[in-house]
Amino acid sequence: MERGGILCQELTTQTSRLGEGITLLNSDGEQRTPVTKIESSLCYLLTIRVIRARNIHQADVLSQTDCYVSLWLPTASTNKFQTKTVRNCKDPVWNETFYFRIQSQVKNVLELALYDKDVVTRDDHLFTVYFDIAKLSLGEQVFMHFKCDSQRQEELEVGFALDNISGPPETIITNGVLVSRKICCLEVQVVEKKKKKKKKEKKSLSKKEFSFKVQGSYEGTQDIMLGSDLVFSSSSPVKFHYVRYKQPTLDVTLPGKKRPPSLQSRVYDKGSPNLELHSFPSGKNMILAEDKGFDLYAKAEDCPDHLDVRLGFDLCVQEQDFLCKRQKYVAPALKKVLQLEQDLLDHETPVVAIMTTGGGMRSLTALYGSLRGLKKLDVLDCATYLTGLSGTTWTMSNLYRDADWSQKDLGKQISEARKHMTKCKINSLSLEYLKYYKKQLCQRKSEGHKTSFIDLWGLVLESLLHDGKDNHRLSDQQRAVDRGQNPLPIYTAVNVKNNYSTLDFKEWVEFTPYEVGLQKYGAFVRVEDFGSEFFMGRLMKKVPESRICFLEGMWSSLFSLNVLYIWNLSHSSEDFWHKWTQDKIDNIEEDPLLPLKPQELRTRLFTPPGPLGSALRAALTDRLAVAQEHNFLKGFQMHNDYLENKHFCRWKDTVLDTFPNQLTQSEEFLSLVDTGFFINTSIMPLLKPERKVDVILHLNYSAGSQIQALDQTCKYCSEQGILFPRVDLSEEDRKNLKECYLFDGAETPGAPVLLFFPLINDTFQKYKVPGQKRSESEMEDGKVDLYGCCSPYSTYSIQYTEKAYDRLVDLGEYNILNNKDLIMQALHTAVARKRQKKK
């Protein structure tokens, strides 16, 4: 399709709230080129003529099908349109024409759905054709025959034309994956006219109610109530934010009139004004209606081209600033531990990351030991990142309350955690706590959050791990990294979708003290704004930042499981269940055959499942509870070339990636669950090329198989084309794991060096510290039953004895200290590669 880029200027990926106008540098100090642009892009007129259908199969038992076609093009209009119904006919003819104004840089996919009209029951959905408008050429008219069923010779005939449209081009902002379009703000005001009061006239108590609706706007419907007895009354204006070129309409219901019976109606009552907004003059106060008792005024103005969502795939300004500051700690620490003679230059300093897995209280406890071991080796100061999920996020959020935790001895932190791990937990279900939970949930709901059982779980965690209410928030952790004094924490979750298994649909979400974002779309918001309401990248309603206990509940939402997840615990394939749960999507023939360009989608046919299939799918995929937060991608549209974008392709792994109308930007809420429901790893943020991680210390705390999550990560990275070292373990090693493995990634240039620490009890049984054997009286302390049937370290255990806690902490520390040589080897390898790369 012809492009409409008349004006194009580079725009920094940060908005003014995130550092607009700042020259951005990458981690090597070189100026980078921002990928987000503000452009002036043409709109086109799309004409669709629904002509006829042939050989439609009989949907009713006693009669032929009563057919009509529904047209849905969400990128161009907020309304669904439909043809008239042709009754009792297998070869219906409509010959109806519809018009849409489309944005040339947006992926416009038209959905043509054929229905059978039923009077008593719900209309039968026969099929839907998905047609990519990018197939059409400007200035040409084509008549398409969609072959919906070759055996029955069912087909749908539709005519298309794409033409230039008069008027100025539209200003858009895009990062090559998402597009933010021009939005306007409409103000509507009711002014009641003066009335002459008669002597001795009593006050009237009647009121007048006005209802206003802009379909597809952020606000939706708003009402104004005016008293009719005042000498003069003027309402406060109601506001609507809407996409200017999506054919929006202001629908007004005047006092005494009926509300609109249908969302698709355009005129509801005679005398009730309805206005097409895309042609409304900007900045002028217009009179919509005049009456003896009142006047209606409206004024529309363009909103500034400023986004509160950061569109971009590079690191935010704050993280880049942190990297510069952290290097001042890392370089001398590496020089010390590696016993180098000369200082490390910036380009010679590797980025080291500590990566953890989940495992409930077991992972919380063992991580303390691992970090204490790294601290004793002075390796903790060499780390730039620390990532976590599930139980390790509890440890991390505890640590980062202290702005200088990694610069101190960890004994105090470990002792504090010990107190809470060993205390009686029954008090968390006391009447006093239950009243507290209810009060907090009511307050959270009143603030504007959408509450669920996961929020209650977060409050229970707060009572298990703290004394009283914890007011700590994720943004408070900025104090712990503002000087680069600690590794930058990254917490992970996955965004899922209703009616889909986690394997079929999941999107990585990362949380830092600075931002929350979906790396697949290159969309990030300030952590203080996460949970607030957004529209087309603009902050519409500020909601108070969540206390971190609610995030901990979401990061470790063990209640978000479904039947398919339970099935996957014992099987490696969903093939059997996919027969019942996956959508039936087929590529179909079209006549004439239009040439397929790289960025265009094949024409496809969706056949809906029957009632039994739908019920079974819901039973298999519905999750017990999901944490929901307002979707900051709401309103964005997908760029016409999003499937060719290298950033999107890196994380493109869901069954809906080629269905742009159904991706996350169309959802009201993000549905966030524990990352462990896909892979028990927090490694994905570290594999972003922009972070340039050179060494990863993989601290595994999984139950059962210690190698499963690593194998799954390798497989995933291989499928996605993400650089990752090859994990080559012999059968003997898999049966009898050692304490540490080094995978240097030599066979995969560009991959990080990986140090893998499974949580096992090997030489710790005989040695209390490396090189020092246990005495007979100390042998009992080496008996740490991690995974036996009577183990105290079950993932679902919430209370340990003091001995069990101490032994697990000591084991985590020992396994680090006992593999000092491998850690040093990995760091030496990374430094050597950095030097070689610069040469």
CATH class of the largest domain: Alpha Beta
Would you count the extended β strands for me?
Answer: 41
- Major sheet description: 12 strands, mixed
Question: Would you identify the regions where 5 or more consecutive residues have pLDDT less than 50?
Answer: 1-27, 200-205, 261-271
What key phrases describe this protein's structure?
839 residues; alpha+beta; Immunoglobulin-like; Cytosolic phospholipase A2 catalytic domain; 3 domains; 12-stranded mixed β-sheet; 6-stranded antiparallel β-sheet; 15 helices; 41 strands; disordered N terminus
Quick structural overview:
This protein has 839 residues and is α+β, with helices and mostly antiparallel strands. The chain is 22% helix and 27% strand. It has 15 helices and 41 strands.
What this model shows, in words?
By secondary structure, the chain is α+β, with helices and mostly antiparallel strands. It has 3 domains: 7-177 and 584-607, Immunoglobulin-like; 183-304, C2 domain (Immunoglobulin-like, Sandwich); 311-561 and 623-838, Cytosolic phospholipase A2 catalytic domain, CATH 3.40.1090. 22% of the residues lie in helices and 27% in strands. It contains 15 helices and 41 strands. Strands 22, 23, 24, 25, 26, 27, 28, 34, 36, 37, 38 and 39 form a 12-stranded mixed β-sheet that branches. The chain is globular, with a radius of gyration of 31 Å.
